[in-house]
Amino acid sequence: MSKLSVKHLLDIKKLESEDIQLILDTAKEFKEVLNRPIKKVPTLRDITIANLFFENSTRTKLSFELAEKRLSADVVNFSAGSSSVNKGETLIDTVNNILSMKVDMVVMRHARPGAAQFLSQHVDASIINAGDGRHEHPTQALLDAFSIREKLGTLQGIKIAIVGDIVHSRVALSNVLLLKKMGAEVMVCGPTTLIPKYIDTLGVRVEHNLQIAIEWCDVANMLRVQHERQDLKYFPSIAEYRAQYGLTMEHLDGLNKPILVMHPGPINRGVEITSEVADSEHSIILEQVENGVAVRMAVLYLLAEKRKLGNS
Amino acid sequence: MSKREIIDSRELNIALNRLCCKLIENHGDFSNSILIGLQPRGVQVLLRIVQLLENEYNIEGIRSGLLDITFYRDDFRRRDGHLQPNKTKIDFLVEDEKVVFIDDVLFTGRSVRAAMDAILTFGRPSKMELLTLIDRRFSRDLPIQPDYKGRQVDSIESQRVEVLWEEINGRDAVLLTESNS
Lengths: 312, 181
Fold this sequence. Notes:
The structure holds two protein chains of two kinds. Chain A is of the alpha/beta class. Chain A folds into two domains: about 15-135 and about 290-305, Aspartate/ornithine carbamoyltransferase (Rossmann fold); about 140-290, Rossmann fold. Chain A contains eleven helices and nine strands. Chain A has helices at about 15-35, 60-70, 90-100, 115-120, 140-150, 170-180, 210-215, 240-245, 250-255, 275-280, 285-305, and strands spanning about 50-55, 75-80, 105-110, 125-130, 160-165, 185-190, 205, 220, 260. In chain A, the strands form two sheets. Chain A has a five-stranded parallel sheet with strand order 7-6-5-8-9, with helices on both faces. In chain A, strands 2-1-3-4 form a four-stranded parallel sheet. Chain A starts with 16 loop residues before the first helix and ends in a 6-residue tail after the last helix. Chain B is of the alpha/beta class. Chain B has a single domain, classed as 3-Layer(aba) Sandwich (Rossmann fold), CATH 3.40.50.2020. Chain B has helices at about 10-25, 40-55, 110-120, 165-170; strands at about 1-5, 35-40, 65, 100-105, 125-135, 150-155, 160-165, 175-180. Chain B has a five-stranded parallel sheet. Chain B has a three-stranded antiparallel sheet with strand order 1-8-7. In chain B, helix 3 links the parallel strand 4 (about 100-105) and strand 5 (about 125-135). The longest helix of chain B has 19 residues, at about 10-25. The mean pLDDT of chain B is about 95. Classes of the chains: A alpha/beta, B alpha/beta. The interface of A and B includes residues 36 and 43 of A.
């Protein structure tokens, strides 16, 4: 078994399928660690990690921080709201200031697509993209894949429908790229206005009818309607979106097979899925959150391994 | 690369039986004892010992588990190769139990140091012991010695001691491998 082929985790696009396999296999062992009475290992005790969140986040930030602490890394946190970014400092200056305090790895969320890539070209730390605008959110795709593989045993040949706001969603893009690399079949489903024009060039099916999508799929990944990124009206009203694309128990009860329901959170209950669906046995939403910590531990572990002592 | 067989199948079997007898002397019916095989190569030794204890010495209900020490190693980021973790399978607490670590070859003692660290995440054992099939003398980096050893082998650092198992390699044997470079 070899190491990861990349030094940073910037997007799914640059990962080989072997890298993805290695991350998912390693995460499985970390999940076992998380179920021990003492959930901490000393592996990253000589690594310092900065979490730079230039955009709001609850789940991802907590999940990364917990993963770092479970690995015994030293952690510093930074949120844009309370920082000098508001005083006009550039991204590179902010990060270089932090790095001069001897930080080895940076986990960054930023509103600009490509921010993580840009940073990786200018600083010496290992960069992990925790979401860059509408571009990618690689660790979310990895934890989604881990959750599917854990439930269904494989990704090869599994049919996954990603439903909702595809155009604004970094989760959708990362998921599509990852699932295609691992041999799954992917469909995107949503109103025409929320489906990117050339998405079929990525080898995915496009569907506008939710009923057809859920009859086809083994897994439905219901995305959040991202009100904050929608500068235009993409659909007439929330009520109409709910009627067309909201997943209900009636949908699930009408199927002749069980399907898994996923959601990257935070959920708009009663919009993309009803409360009953979110809390039903079909839903693996909370397992996704649990798996997120294990997957992020695996990513941190494998990237730290690439930083040999003395280089950092 | 030259390979020399230093222990054959009959000798290996005698050694395993002797280890079982010594374990029984100290642990009786194993009601307060847990056998822990160290991943990856201690697993086969553990399986054989449990098999012998159950079938030849009629001891029932032996509790055993597998421990992976990858995340506790002291050479993370200091070696070139990738450290791939293996499965840990310990479905019980080790609080106040006597733990016996089982491995195939004791060399520098660093894995055992990591194992002592790792097992504490499952509770505080009343005692820890070490059983090794092969003890490579004069090669320790740490003050760690086995409580039970199958055979002592004198070897130099460039040599490798490799244990073969019938279930995996088709025959039981211990080889001393020397690289010619």
